[in-house]
């Protein structure tokens, strides 16, 4: 709410807002509410306009800028609110120590996952282990779980949600089903025991998205 009083810049006299004449220069100190719509004729400041526009951050004002009654002159140099806003912005633009550590590890993580997945798939061949397809599917599980495909929601069409089962959609014309056994049956996958179903379903999914 705009104040009922205004301060004349020339004399420092406080007058009623409704008595302020056109082209009168007013003084608004830091932390005070601007009493009337006007134009900045001297100085710079930060103005809190969230009561009018919903803007959470202060708006910079300089000579010839328009200011509105009911907004607050923060004066960025002196106002605690403005300083807090700048600190929040700086924190959002900077990375924490943990974030930087994760970024350094990421350059080694993906090659390590690929090597581990390849080892799981190839070592059983070297040692003539039975059920080689099972080990190959396990290698795919490790690879897909540790390095997932970047999602692109804009490419999904015909999306459907089946409560208690899962979801279905098409990406580049290929049908994708994600969910439990019931969604697998809906997709026409083979049944059988849970272990075989999981392997078949994963392979089927990889065939669709690669």
Automatic annotation (TrEMBL):
GO cellular component: a single term: membrane
Residue stretches making up the P-type ATPase A domain: 9-77
Swiss-Prot/TrEMBL keywords: Membrane, Transmembrane, Transmembrane helix
Bilayer-spanning residue ranges: 108-127
Domain of life: Eukaryota
Family: Belongs to the cation transport ATPase (P-type) (TC 3.A.3) family. Type IB subfamily.
Protein name: P-type ATPase A domain-containing protein
